[in-house]
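Support reply, case 0932

Customer input (verbatim):
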Amino acid sequence: MADDADTPSRDYRETVFLPDTPFPMRGGLPQKEPEILARWAEADLYNAIRAARQEAGAPLFVLHDGPPYANGAIHIGHALQKTLKDFVVRSRFALGYDVDYVPGWDCHGLPIEWKIEEELRGQGRRKDEVSKAEFRERCREYADHWIGVQMEGFKRLGVLGDWENRYATMDYSSEAAIVAEFHKFVASGQLYRGSKPVMWSPVERTALADAEVEYHDHVSPTVWVKFPVVDYTPYQGLTDGDDEAPSPAGSAEAQARVDSSLNGDQACIVIWTTTPWTIPANRAISYNRAIAYGVYEVEAMETGLEFEPWAKPGDRLILADKLTADVFSAAKIASARRLETFDPAGMVCEHPLAALDTHYSFPVPLLDGDHVTEDAGTGFVHTAPGHGADDYLVWLAHGHREIPETVDADGAYYPNVPLFGGLKVLETEGKKAGKFGPANGAVMDRLIEAHRLLARGRLAHSYPHSWRSKAPVIFRNTPQWFVRMDEPLKDGRTLRETAIEAIEATTFHPEAGRNRIRAMVESRPDWLLSRQRAWGSPLAMFVDKETGHPLHDETVNAKIVDLIAKEGADAWFTRPVSDFLGIHDPERFEKVEDILDVWFDSGSTHAFTLEGRRNTRWPADLYLEGSDQHRGWFQSSLLESSGTRGRAPYDAVLTHGFTVDENGEKMSKSKGNTIEPQTVIKDSGAEILRLWAAMADYTDDQRIGKTVLATTTDAYRKLRNTVRYLLGALAGFTEAERVEPADMPPLERFILHRLWELDGQVRTAYRDYIFQDAARPVLEFCQNELSSLFFDIRRDALYCDQPDSMRRRAARTVMDLVFERLTIWMSPLIPFTTEEAWTTRFPDLGSNCLRTFPETPADWANPAEADRWAKVQAVTSVVTGALEVERREKRMGAALEAAPKVHVTDAALIAAFDGLDVAEVLRTSQATLIEGDGPAGAFRLAETPGVAVEPVRAEGVKCARSWRILPEVGSDSRYPDLSLRDAQAVAAWDAARA
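Our regenerated output:
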């Protein structure tokens, strides 16, 4: 402060107590963070904290890690998720818990199989030319490599965990535990083999579960197909929920209508479908008894068309009344008249391909089904029970059991399918993989030939795709192994009921997650477990060839699990069956070669990560993953645990949104809008990514990009400067300086009050996992109450008061308390910076991460001081506004040149300044507080009525040390260019050095 005096008699700079710290203004995080990580690794920090907590008798908290897939370097989504988990781990440590967190990896599945197949093709080899043992070993080596790469990426983010004992689903012990969990489902009778339509990926040649499917925009061909009504048969089967077969009224009348006006080609039921390739598999037509149907006769066709429509005047079409306009538009029908109401019950149609091949001469019954709606189409649903879930269910509900098989594993018609044998629905190889094959076109051509195509078109719609290959999937009837969702177990509850009860007993963050996963569990089909691939944990069981039932033998199962634990799952595929079957005849039993759904793998991780390990427990306190895992890991873990243990493996579930770019768009390399965490770390440091995650509302999608990161960097810089100022101002602070709160000035008591408030907010935020509610209030406190108020007002006292002055000691005491709390409050979020700050000040006290939140005395609460300083700051804002005008008009420079006259009409505002040095609070050399309105020309702010300011210049001489302008400067003859306060301080400084 002293280097700008007009003609100082000496250089007073050495007598000013300026901040002094080696803590740099620039973080240099890309260089500093690896140094801190190395120290943490050397100290085995995670285990050191656990040991300290266990010694203190701390309560246990278990965060079970949802395993990322061991395929490729970490991306921004990984960075967000693992950082959120680290917030949980570190904040629970800081709250005084012993935290168990074992990072893990999901290793089995198609993506790795594909990578190995690509490698083999690059070597000129085919997968079928490689033994299963060699193929699986290649997969294992590939996964192991990426576990190492990802682990280093997560560590670089600062993630604490038991890395030395990480888990992986491909570990021999893990595979053995997964198989043992599978055996529990076999033993309980929940497992069965069924033939039903499942989502099938022809490109991957395997069945897919719901969680392995995602929906993308897709363009499909659409067809309106005519099914001639040929017969009436009173239906004798049972409908779902009925006790007796229905006997439609008017049977004779219905038969007479078929025999007359509805006979043959004269009347056709019209269906609409986006999968023409399923027409050869059609076995029925579904309708809804709640829908009104009519028979319509075409009167005229549209004219001026460039093609000849397939409909013609005189055609009789049966449709839902509500949908006639849409159908007529597609068929280019200009007008039609309604002949009569149509009751579909008991009607029978001819297959549209019957005229071309006798194979299709079977009757096509009409079946009542609640899944049929009037939202689109014709009001009738083409029903191919081998290629649709609703189709399958309505077919079974009406007493049918035979499910036709028309499409093979490669997505091609079986050779025995008349007219279409060998044609592919989807291409599975080369550049056209995933595109439509010739099947759709061939079916439409045959329908035209049979005069059964009414219209066709194209539809852009949402369609299921494999989440791995991104290729479209189909529904295909195949024999698979399932877990029953609705079969009562020993306790009388079904798996679905048990899971739903578990959902109700779980805490969800946010609460909306409960309804989401509940809706999925309520509506999901039986759990499809089997996959026809090579890289995974096996359905390690034997099936009796005579009965078709799994072998139940605990000795055999124990042998299977034991060998897999010793040799890995490869043992199941390479060892002869005699090594497992013991006394049983190998000729009698079929060895199942399928592998388990990878979601069963990851859903079983609780069994071998939380059970059987020291210093942990089952169930976990928390599972944390992205919101997509309501249908993935959260659900598979729920179902696996509910089926084997009768409850969820977690007490609480936390979900976060996805990372998107700054415009809210999904990130894509093709768009060039991706943000790679490695780049951010290299340029700015992991701390910036962590602070971004801390400040975001993770319950929604998180935006990230250059602008967002720049804003985050600016917030970090302000926080770092606050910490740096504290360190500099606390240089040399000792316990001898400490002042009791009761002896502190009002400003310090106000800051203590804010610390008390923040302590409650921060603890609550961390307990409830609302990390932005910890980060943002602390950042705002640093900017508003510390930098703009406390530091600004106390800067003069800190720099220029004598070291033993009560005001300076009180200020430094509060700064010490702020530093103590700030460094641990923010440690879970920005651990590198808080570690650097703590060890800069206390190099011999160990890691900041070992600390817990200090207790904040209740008597720091001081609402009266909070109210006082709200009023003071309201008045200060008017003074600041007045001085800004003076500076802008160049009538005044620094605030220390001013001696404002502050006119206040509100007695409460005036009373707020009782006991305060008004000039010090206003950061001016002098100031006068006057009760009254003030002159008309005084400065005022509309938002602060009753306050008027005259920005008067200060009178006196500028102090050469503090730069305050005061009449008293020169009163002490020893120091003619100093104020009295400064003269006393320098005299003491000189005496101490005499």
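We compared this against your earlier run and they match. Two observations from our side: The longest strand covers residues 213-232. The mean pLDDT is 90. Please reopen the case if you see a mismatch on your end.
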